[in-house]
Amino acid sequence: MNQTDDQRNTEGSRAAVALKYDGERAPTVTATGTYELADEIIRIAREHNVPLYENPELAAILARLSLNDEIPETLYRVIAEILAFAFHIQGRTPDDAGQDKPSPSADQ
User: Fold this and answer.
1) Comparing 15 with 11, which gets the higher pLDDT?
2) Has this prediction a pTM greater than 0.85?
3) Coiled coil where (predicted)?
4) Phi and psi dihedrals of 2, rounded to 5?
């Protein structure tokens, strides 16, 4: 499972965060970037038909995590709702996580 979060702060910067969800552990941060790198993360997600979800506040929180960090327990519910929606629009279920199908994603 990949998730991309895109944010614009008051200075107009853009940030993206990709999450991986394997269906067994909490989602982990697999990529994060600002400006051109954020645009590239989003481009790759779109290229692979990964659904994007936009939420600047959530993106700001996720961008503070390090690569390979699991999301904090306080975000489980909101991330679970986003993942459930991403799976739903792809005709999948969370039980499909980790299989060879395209991974749902969200753009913040």
Assistant:
1) 15
2) no
3) none
4) -115, 145
Q: Is the dihedral of CA 19, 20, 26, 31 positive or negative?
A: negative
CA–CA dist 95, 48 (Å, integer): 20
What's the residue count for the chain? 108
Q: Is the pLDDT of residue 102 over 90?
A: no
H-only helix segments in 14-101: 35-47, 56-63, 76-89
What CATH topology corresponds to 2-96?
name from scop (3.40.1690)
Domain ranges of the chain: 2-96
CA distance 83 to 104: 7
